[in-house]
Amino acid sequence: MKGLRKRAAKASRDQVLSRAVVKACDHTLRKRSEALAKLDEPQAARTAASKARSRGLDRMDDLLTTLQARLEKKGVRVFRAADREHAIDYVVGLVRDQGLSTVVKAKSMTGEEAGLSRALEDAGCRVVETDLGEYIVQLRDEPPSHIIAPAIHLSRRQVGELFAERLGMTPTEDPASMCDFARKRLRRDFLSADLGIVGVNLAVAGTGDLITVTNEGNGRLCQTMPRVLVAFTGIEKVVEDAEDAAAVLRVLSKNGTGQVATSYVSLLRGPAGPTEPFGPKEIHLVLMDNGRSRLRDDPILRDMLKCIRCGACINCCPVYRSIGGHAYGTTYVGPMGITLTNGLAGGEGLGGERLRDLGELTYACTLCGECGRVCPVGIDLPDMILKLRARAPKPPGRNLGMKAGRVILGGSRRFSATGRIAGTLGRIAPHLYAKLARMSGWTRSAAPPVPSDTPFRRQFRKWKPFVGHDALVRPAGIPAALEKGNPRDETADISSVGPAVLSRTDATTAFAEKAAQPFDAFISNFRDVRGEVASGTLTETLDNLIQGLDHPTVLASEELLTQLADLDCRVLNAADPELPLDRASQAVVGVTGCLALVAETGSILLEHGPGSERAASLLPDTHVIAARADQVVATMEQALAIRNRRDSPAATLITGPSRTADIEKTLIIGMHGPRRLVLVLL
Amino acid sequence: MKTHLFIPCLVDQFLPEVGLATADCLSAAGCEVAYPSKQTCCGQMFLNSGMPGDAAGLARAFVRRFADATWVVAPSWSCVDMVRTRYGELLEGRELEQWESLRERVFELTEFLSLKLGLDAWQGSFRARAILHWSCHMPRDGNEQDRLEGLLGGVDGLELLPRPPFECCGFGGVFWNLWSEVSASIGRRRLDVLTRDGPDAILLAEPGCLMQMQAAASESKSGVRVLHVAQLLAEAIR
Question: Is residue B85 domain-shared with residue B102, that is, in the same domain?
Answer without folding.
Answer: yes
